[in-house]
Automatic annotation (TrEMBL):
<dbReference type="Pfam" id="PF00692">
    <property type="entry name" value="dUTPase"/>
</dbReference>
<keyword id="KW-0460">Magnesium</keyword>
<comment type="pathway">
    <text>Pyrimidine metabolism; dUMP biosynthesis; dUMP from dCTP (dUTP route): step 2/2.</text>
</comment>
<keyword id="KW-0378">Hydrolase</keyword>
<protein>
    <recommendedName>
        <fullName>Deoxyuridine 5'-triphosphate nucleotidohydrolase</fullName>
        <ecNumber>3.6.1.23</ecNumber>
    </recommendedName>
</protein>
<feature type="domain" description="dUTPase-like">
    <location>
        <begin position="15"/>
        <end position="147"/>
    </location>
</feature>
<dbReference type="InterPro" id="IPR036157">
    <property type="entry name" value="dUTPase-like_sf"/>
</dbReference>
<comment type="similarity">
    <text>Belongs to the dUTPase family.</text>
</comment>
<comment type="function">
    <text>This enzyme is involved in nucleotide metabolism: it produces dUMP, the immediate precursor of thymidine nucleotides and it decreases the intracellular concentration of dUTP so that uracil cannot be incorporated into DNA.</text>
</comment>
<feature type="binding site">
    <location>
        <begin position="68"/>
        <end position="70"/>
    </location>
    <ligand>
        <name>substrate</name>
    </ligand>
</feature>
<feature type="binding site">
    <location>
        <begin position="85"/>
        <end position="87"/>
    </location>
    <ligand>
        <name>substrate</name>
    </ligand>
</feature>
<keyword id="KW-0546">Nucleotide metabolism</keyword>
<feature type="binding site">
    <location>
        <position position="81"/>
    </location>
    <ligand>
        <name>substrate</name>
    </ligand>
</feature>
<dbReference type="GO" id="GO:0004170">
    <property type="term" value="F:dUTP diphosphatase activity"/>
</dbReference>
<dbReference type="InterPro" id="IPR008181">
    <property type="entry name" value="dUTPase"/>
</dbReference>
<dbReference type="InterPro" id="IPR029054">
    <property type="entry name" value="dUTPase-like"/>
</dbReference>
<keyword id="KW-0479">Metal-binding</keyword>
């Protein structure tokens, strides 16, 4: 069973839809487009899509904005920054920079599900400059260095 936290949400627009989970075990809550009318996103174009909501994410957590698999596979629409990060101290409107990766113009309707939000804990690193790092078998091997 997942841990449940209360998340305070403020509607910034009366048309806004509060995020919803699509199933009992869904990790991501759907974010909805808050639009007066449908918009068209041309191939290669990125449009900032309003959600009409702001929220209080608990301290020690971040809101991670991911693509919705159906929207990405069927329409070629996904967040331009791949994963958006909503910090716990941010109180502004959550927006989604939706990019059209396809070859045809795509329409986004009012109240359409445009992304999903995962509330996740994070660790803050205490970074220390050193002269040497510990040795590992992998060493400095980069992209593709562990596979065939």
């Amino acid at each position: 069973m997942a841990t449940v936290y209360d998340i305070n949400i403020k509607k910034l627009d009366e048309k806004a839809v509060i995020p919803t989970y699509g199933s009992e075990y869904a990790a991501g809550a759907d974010l909805y487009a808050c639009l007066d009318e449908a918009i068209t996103i041309e191939p290669g174009q990125t449009v900032m899509v309003h959600t009409g909501i702001a929220m209080e994410i608990p301290e020690g957590f971040a809101g991670l904005v991911y693509a919705r698999s159906g929207l990405a596979s069927k329409k070629g629409l996904a967040p331009a920054n791949k994963v958006g990060v909503v910090d716990a101290d941010y109180r502004g409107e959550i927006m989604v920079a939706l990019h059209n990766h396809g070859t045809q113009a795509q329409t986004v309707e009012p109240e359409e599900r445009i992304a999903q939000l995962v509330i996740a804990p994070y660790i803050v690193g205490a970074f220390h400059q050193v002269d040497e790092l510990s040795d590992t078998v992998r060493g400095a091997g980069g992209f593709g260095s562990t596979g065939k």
